[in-house]
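Hi F.,

I've been meaning to write this up properly since the lab meeting, where we talked about keeping a consistent format for the predictions we share between groups. The idea is simple: the sequence comes first, exactly as it goes in, then the structure tokens exactly as they come out, then a line or two of notes. No screenshots and no reformatting. I'm using this chain as the first example so we have something concrete to point to.
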Amino acid sequence: MFAMDGFWNFAGNYWWLVFPLGGVLTSAFWTVNGQVKDASKRRHKRRLEILEAKARLRASSAQPAVAQLPRESVESAPSQAAQIQRAMDIHDSVTARWLDYELDVAKLIAFPAMSDGRQDLTARFLRAKKVADRLRPAAPDTKLSKDEVTEYRDAVTDFEVAFDLAERDARRQKDAAFSETERARLDTAKRLLNLAVDEAATPAERQSAYRRVRQQLDGLIDVSDDAYDVLKERVGLQLPPGSPA
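Output, unedited:
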């Protein structure tokens, strides 16, 4: 009874605290809610970029090669189509190298800077990629001016160089940008990932490990949904026939 009286006395004397506290709590709620929405937008945008890159690579592989052009004309004075095709081949090659990271959880754990747009070199590479993607012609025989061809070729060169620098830096620093606690989470994720694809483990152990990998990496490094889908497929392939997926 005395405790309740004390509470009501405090509430009566300090009722005005409701307003500033309410403002703080409301602000905190909207801040967290905004962060969640921003993260969701980033994941959605990233997934669209991956799908677009994969579709472009499939389309490029279906196009006829420039090798069908007269050999002597390509060697002596490369035609515009040959120049564009060469730039598109390099463009596709670098995009495929990027997808190797984007779709491989193990690589992202080993070299987390490759998925971190806050890293300066990674941010530069992503910007260079957007420029090259925007300037890319629909096909090698697309009619472009000489300046447009040069602009696309230069953009592809920038894209390739920026990726090389970002990859080299990511492999150099590995997890150096993370705190001791965060590095421990990365190590745990590595062990769980090995268990998830281990044929000697039971189906239940592999499925549990897959779920815990996601928990360890959530909020730590930016892993795309597509990468998790690829991992989930690998885990499923490791399961014996008849096991629940």
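Notes:
The chain has one domain: 42-62+79-238.
The CA atoms of residues 4 and 120 lie 57 Å apart.

If this format works for you, I'll send the rest the same way.

G.
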